[in-house]
Amino acid sequence: MAVEMPVAWDASEYNMKHKRRGQAVIFNHDTFDTNDYAPREGSKLDVKKLHETFTSLLFEVTIHNNLEYSDIKEAISALAKEDHSDADCLAVIVLTHGEREGRLVPRDSGVFYNVEMLWKPFTADKCPSLAGKPKLFFIQACRGKKLDAGIKVKQRRSIEFDSSPPLCKIPTHADFLFAHSTMEGFYSFRNPDKGTWFIQSLCKELNSTDNLLQILTRATRRVTQLESESNTQQFHEQKQVPSITSMLTRDLYFHPKS
Questions:
Q1: What is the pLDDT of residues 111-167, one digit of tens each?
Q2: Which of 90, 102, 96, 108 is nearest to 23 (CA)?
Q3: Is 97 a catalytic site residue?
Q4: 251: CB partners within 8 A, 6+ apart
Q5: 142 classed as catalytic
């Protein structure tokens, strides 16, 4: 199968000059059908900030609240079947509880779903109108029960800084990016009054004119500078670091549209 590349073969940047920026779809879960998972207080603050941030980046934002597993699967399937030819990219954001090995919790929390269910329908062979375009997945969820107490370090006083062939192949799994709020196996922290560390840090950085990986690096640093406060000793003074996996093949800038 051959699809049209949206950018020159040797281009260093993604083509962000399509008619539309693309869709940003948010799956927010803050209530669950069983007592196994507590309500995610503060998640609405993340949703509000995400809506503001992605709208400012010219995305068309859709918010799904507390869907069951079958509804999530249906929404993803419908999104993958749409024609994204006139869009720059796609963003999918999930806010929920999570477990090890990429398992995420829907409203009907007796059933887990895997991160793969979210992104596999968008590989280049299954969704050709997104071939060669960025597909961004941001996952705010725990990935296990481990805690990171951090380690104290001394700060340094000063720091010194010294034309392509007509038909080419691209890997079907190219041009994806996965940004998890924490490392595999570890907790992810949320403040009921302020939102989650990761989403709030991400939104503070996303309006930058830098490329996305630089933005994510700074968002990661913001998260690492935070420390938990809890009346439960186990969860007091704990740390967190996001985990970014990139298969992007070009620099990604959210340039303004004329």
A1: 899 999 999 999 999 999 999 999 999 999 999 989 888 887 665 554 444 444 456
A2: 90
A3: yes
A4: 12, 13, 14, 211, 212, 213
A5: yes
How far apart, in whole angstroms, are the C-alpha atoms of residue 244 and residue 160? 27
pTM score, whole prediction: 0.91
Q: Which of 148, 154, 158 is nearest to 224 (CA)?
A: 148
Total residues belonging to the chain = 258
Which of 84, 89, 127, 142 is the catalytic position? 142
Instruction: Quote the DSSP letter at residue 148.
Output: B
Name 57's Cβ contacts closer than 8 Å, sequence gap at least 6. Answer: 21, 24, 206, 207, 254
**Are the C-beta atoms of residues 47 and 95 closer than 8 Å to each other?**
yes
Determine which one of 97, 127, 180, 203 is catalytic.
Answer: 97
Residue with tokens 């083509």: 15
Confidence of residue 89 (pLDDT cuts 50, 70, 90): very high
